[in-house]
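Because showing beats explaining, we let one protein speak, sequence and backbone structure tokens together, and leave readers to judge.
___
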Amino acid sequence: MQIDATGLGKRYQRDWIYRGLTRTFRPGSATAVLGPNGAGKSTLLNTLSGQLLPTEGTLAYARAGRTLAVEDVPQHLAYAAPYLDLLEELTLTELLRFHTRFKPLRPGITLDGLVGLMYLEGARGRLVREFSSGMKQRLKLGLALYADAPLLLLDEPTTNLDATGAAWFQEHVRATRAGRTILLSSNVPAEYAFCDEELAVTDFQPRPPR
């Protein structure tokens, strides 16, 4: 998916989170959205994906040369973030069956195969609410990485993961990145090491007058 942002800005009340962002995000690119905590990284991700309306500027979306309306973007989007909730009253198997009714998996990936890729074979019948924080984050990432979606948003993806889990993420994001447009928010260099482009939110924040 291609995203064209022109003069993009987002304001809450009188405060601009960012302003004057013009950039094209092309298929096959992986862009790290950088900035300190509270700088607006998540806000920018949500605006670029059409989940938040910009205060000013325009966004245009296209896939395979065909223009997409903003309301059609969610069906082409996969998203993983620590603050996104899972249906914790379901077992792992139930959750996967429910989730993939709305967001199918990539060709060649089965539910059983995904469970194996996430190293959750022993948890098929367990309620998701009984999972550790690391297991939940690996589940969120697995659902996003292996969704059949050309636009992938990753917000601080290694939160709650230990060193082994972070290495797992790096392995699988590299394995699934071809042809996708990836936007990743982070302030941890090891987390976005695979990205080939960077965008600092602070570069688009208006400076107060002297």
